[in-house]
Each structure stands twice: as structure tokens, then as C-alpha cells.
Design brief:
flat, about 110 residues, mainly alpha
Length: about 110
């Protein structure tokens, strides 16, 4: 990719990102009273973060089984109310142990 194409793509991306954030501020001057729209706007960041994180969690390792088990452990620990560090460590240890076990099974 040459520099000219790169900067054109960069300007388009920056413009679209800015417009998505700037248009609501310019269009809406008063407080939003509609409960549906307020709840929709409240949950958008969580939805986008989940949509970006879930596939990455499944393909973070070379083994989909280990990644799935790590994700399952992370979900279970999060449901139990454990902290972020505990959830991350438990899921990483799970993936590590599953990959070690699967390495010995394959040999």
C-alpha cells in the first residue's frame, strides 16, 4: 500500500469515527427522556466490547478447545463475582494446563 492510499483510508476512518461521536452531540440538545433509547445507549459499549472480545478469546491460542475452556472458566469466575485479576489468572492457568494435557495426549 502506498502512502497516498494509506492517508486517504486514514482520513476516511478518522472522519467516520469522528462523525459517529459528534453527530449525537450536535443533534441532541436536551436530555433524552425515552427509557428505551437511554437503555439502548447505556448498553452499546458493553455490546461492542463483547462482540470484539469474544472472537479474540476463542482464537487467542492455537487450540480452540483450550481457549473455549479458558473462556468458560472466565465466565464462571465472573458470574461468581470474582475480581478481574482472579478471573484473568484462572482462565490463563486453565488454558495453560489444558494445552499441556493435550500435548501429552497427542504424543
Amino acid at each position: 500500500m502506498d502512502n497516498q492510499s494509506f492517508f486517504i483510508y486514514l482520513l476516511i476512518m478518522a472522519g467516520s469515527t469522528y462523525l459517529i461521536r459528534a453527530i449525537p452531540f450536535a443533534a441532541v440538545r436536551k436530555k433524552i427522556e425515552n427509557k428505551f433509547i437511554r437503555s439502548f445507549l447505556y448498553y452499546i459499549p458493553y455490546t461492542v466490547l463483547s462482540a470484539m472480545t469474544f472472537p479474540a478469546a476463542l482464537y487467542a491460542t492455537g487450540n480452540i478447545i483450550a481457549a473455549s475452556l479458558g473462556l468458560l472458566v472466565a465466565i464462571l469466575f465472573a458470574i461468581k463475582g470474582k475480581g478481574l485479576t482472579v478471573v484473568a489468572v484462572a482462565s490463563c492457568v486453565t488454558v495453560f494446563l489444558v494445552e499441556i494435557v493435550m500435548t501429552y495426549i497427542i504424543q
